[in-house]
């Protein structure tokens, strides 16, 4: 019998759970910070998928690791831009709830 950490389906199940939690958080959270954290959960699910398929199906281990590094860079850029937008919104509205931001005009 193979150990649990040596099976692809365990990693895919964990990744599906992270993805479901991220989507649920995006739909249910009312604050921008909660939505940002939920987006990071979705990025984590994608990274876990890349690394799992990299370990079990690809001969060259650098392929999945490079994809995960790009995802980490994209997540860092997303966080920096989103936090600057959240700070700007908070300065104008004194709140970060999405319900009060529906009157934003471009």
Overall pLDDT level? 87
How large is the share of residues in beta strands?
under 5%
Order of helices and strands: HHH
What integer value in Å does the Rg equal?
Answer: 18 Å
**Count of alpha/pi helices:** 3
Point out poorly predicted stretches. none
By helix and strand content, what is the structural category?
mainly alpha
In which range does the helix fraction lie?
Answer: over 70%
Shape: elongated
Kindly report how far apart the N and C termini lie.
60 Å
Care to count the β-strands?
Answer: 0
Question: Describe the biggest sheet?
Answer: none
Describe the structure.
The longest helix has 32 residues, at 62-93. The N and C termini lie far apart (60 Å). Helix 1 packs antiparallel against helix 2. This protein is elongated. The chain has three helices and no strands. The protein has helices spanning 8-28, 32-57, 62-93. The relative contact order is 0.12. The protein is an all-alpha fold and 106 residues long.
Which helices and strands occur, and which strands form pairs?
Elements: H1 8-28, H2 32-57, H3 62-93
Helix pairs in contact: 1-2, 2-3
Task: Please describe the structure with a list of short key phrases separated by commas or semicolons.
106 residues, 75% helix
Explain briefly what this protein structure is.
With 106 residues, the protein is mostly helical. Helix content is 75%, strand content 0%.
């Amino acid at each position: 019998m193979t150990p649990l950490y040596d099976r692809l389906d365990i990693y895919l199940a964990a990744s599906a759970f992270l993805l479901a939690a991220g989507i649920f958080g995006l739909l249910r959270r009312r604050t921008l910070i909660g939505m940002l954290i939920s987006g990071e959960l979705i990025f984590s699910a994608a990274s876990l998928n890349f690394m799992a398929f990299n370990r079990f199906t690809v001969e060259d281990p650098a392929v999945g690791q490079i994809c995960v590094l790009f995802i980490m860079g994209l997540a860092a850029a997303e966080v920096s831009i989103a936090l600057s937008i959240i700070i700007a919104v908070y300065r104008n509205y004194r709140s970060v709830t999405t319900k009060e931001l529906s009157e934003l005009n471009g």
